[in-house]
């Protein structure tokens, strides 16, 4: 049976050199002001390109969510594996989408944007 010796062929000087090899490296790059500006400008250009190409994922509207949940609710009602508790949960989610859809259709009064301070 052969025993593996990890430190074989290394002396203390080799180990210390290995441990201290990056002691002078701060772990990050120090950028000049010009490099920072160029980086920010290139990121903005990339964001604009994504917006123009439509790669940005838009979330569904409240109306779209309601319609999808309504279809899911009708489908689930007709399944043999119908679980009343799960059906009730799905109905609650659908009702939430319906409330949000209705709220988004109503014009809010100017006073609704102010929170009273007590």
UniProtKB/TrEMBL annotation:
Domain of life (superkingdom): Eukaryota
Protein name: Uncharacterized protein
Organism of this sequence: Spodoptera exigua (Beet armyworm)
């Amino acid at each position: 049976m052969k025993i593996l010796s990890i430190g074989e062929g290394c002396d203390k000087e080799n180990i210390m050199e290995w441990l201290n090899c990056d002691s002078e490296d701060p772990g990050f790059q120090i950028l000049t002001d010009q490099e920072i500006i160029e980086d920010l400008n290139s990121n903005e250009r990339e964001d604009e390109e994504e917006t123009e190409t439509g790669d940005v994922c838009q979330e569904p509207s409240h109306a779209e969510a309601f319609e999808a949940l309504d279809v899911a609710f009708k489908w689930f009602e007709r399944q043999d594996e119908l679980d009343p508790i799960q059906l009730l949960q799905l109905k609650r989610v659908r009702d939430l989408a319906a409330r949000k859809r209705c709220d988004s259709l109503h014009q809010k009064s100017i006073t609704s944007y102010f929170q009273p301070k007590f």
